[in-house]
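Re: the 319-residue chain
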Amino acid sequence: MLRENISILQHMSFSNADQNQPCPPSSILDALMRVIVPIFLFLFFLTWNSWAAGDEEQKNAVTFSGISGWYQFASEQNLTDHLFYGINIGYAIRDKDFMRSMDIELSGLTVETEKSPDGRRTDVNVFSLEALFPLLPEKKSIPYLTIGAGVLLVDHDAGEEENLALSYGFGFKKVLSEDFFLRLEARHHFIGDHDHVNNFQYSAGLTYLFGQPKKEKPKPLPDADGDGVPDERDACPETPKDFDIDKRGCPIDPPDTDSDGVPDYRDECGQTPAGSKVDSAGCPFDEDGDGIFDHHDKCPGTPEDLKVNPQGCVDLRSD
C-alpha cells in the first residue's frame, strides 16, 4: 500500500512539473497569422461599413489580386527556379496627399519545384504581410515601393521547414478601368534569421477593387444645335448641322449668297441688293415703317398710317 501511494505521488509530481513547463513556442506562421488575420478582419469591416453607408468621400477599398511569375532560389537551397502562382488580398488607403496613401496586402504564393540533385518534388509556400507605397500621385500609371515580412515554408519528404522571409521591391500599376489595374513587380527576399540567403521574385498580375465608390459621369451641358459647343458658350446657338465651327460655336466661312454679311442659314431676305444696310436677320431697313424697304422706297419719310404704293409713296387713289 505504501509503495502504491508513493507511486501515485510521484506521478502527480511529474504531471505538475509538466504543467509548469512553458508552452513550446508557436511556429513563425502561427505567430504571423495571429497578428495578420485580426488586422485584415478589422480593415475589411471598416471598408464594408463605409461601402454600406454609401460614403461618397470614402476612397478606401478592399483589393483582390491574382499574380503569377518566376521565383528564383538561392543556390544554397538546392531548389530549382520555377513558375509560381499567388493571391493577394489587401486594403487600399487613399488620401488627397499621396504621401499618406498606401496598400496593405496579405500575400500567399506557391511554387511546385524540385530538390537538387535527386529531383524530388518540393512544394514551397510564401505567406507575408506587405505594404505598398506610391512614389507619385495617382495617375494612369503609378510606380510604387513595397516592403514585407512573412514566412517561407518548404515541404518535402523529410518534413517541413520554416524560415523567416523579409522582402522589399518595386512595382508599377497601370490603371485599366475604374475597378481594375495591371501590376508588374520585382521583389528581393531575405530568407532566414541569421545566415540568410537571397531569393528573387518577378511577377505580373491583375487587381480588382471592391467597395470603391463609383464616379458619376458628369451630365452633358445643354447644346441645342448639337454642334458640340454648350449653349452657355455658344455665340451662334442655331448653327445648322454638318457645318465646320470654331471655338465659339460659329460656322467657319458659311455661304452668304447676297453678300450682305448675314449667312444664308440666318438670312430671311436672301436677295438683298448689294450695298444695302441690313438688320441681324439679313433684311434691309425700313426707316419710315411703311412696309417698303429703304432700297425700294421712292418716298422715304412717309407719315404713318398712310397707304403707300409699291414705290413707298402715298397712294392717291385710296379713299
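The first strand starts at residue 61 and ends at 72.
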